[in-house]
Design brief:
Blueprint (H helix, E strand, L loop, with lengths): L2 H20 L9 H22 L4 H5 L2 H16 L7 H16 L5 H18 L1 E2 L4 E2 L6
Antiparallel strand pairs: 1-2
Helix pairs in contact: 1-4, 2-4, 2-6, 4-5, 5-6
Length: 141
């Protein structure tokens, strides 16, 4: 996606995302980081699904609204994850990979899958299940 087009989409989506964030609760988590992860999990799932439709052209799906959604959700989450966060190291890996997927061309389906897996590592380390809106409990040994 050209940087200018992505920037325009991000600017257009940000107010709506801020409104959703301000009204969080009910179906979406009230915890700020869980709210962003809840949405990012859905955006990544959709992006992977669409990319699977035509694995040779992931950029055509990234360059749509889903790419902007991932950018907005990631930026909001990024502001909450500081050096003292237990997922900071994993988030930095995700952040780097997500930005590459969004801004570098050409892009491969493998790169999209790797960025999605990096996000999943963060979700797991946070011990959050964005699909059930519940805390994941560690299995006893």
């Amino acid at each position: 996606m050209s940087a200018e087009i992505l920037a325009d989409k991000v600017r257009a989506m940000t107010p709506g995302y801020e409104t959703m964030f301000a009204g969080r609760g009910g179906v979406t988590p009230t915890d700020p980081l869980q709210f962003h992860f809840y949405h990012l999990a859905r955006y990544w799932s959709r992006l992977l699904g669409f990319c699977a439709l035509d694995p040779s052209k992931p950029a055509s799906f990234i360059d749509g609204d889903l790419g902007a959604c991932i950018q907005v959700g990631s930026e909001f989450a990024h502001r909450l994850i500081g050096p003292n966060s237990p997922i900071y190291a994993s988030w930095q890996i995700y952040w780097t990979q997500a930005r590459a997927v969004l801004h570098q061309r050409p892009i491969t389906l493998d790169a999209v899958k790797a960025a999605s897996r990096a996000f999943e590592v963060c979700v797991t380390e946070l011990k959050y299940d964005p699909w059930g809106n519940t805390v994941v409990r560690e299995k006893s040994k």
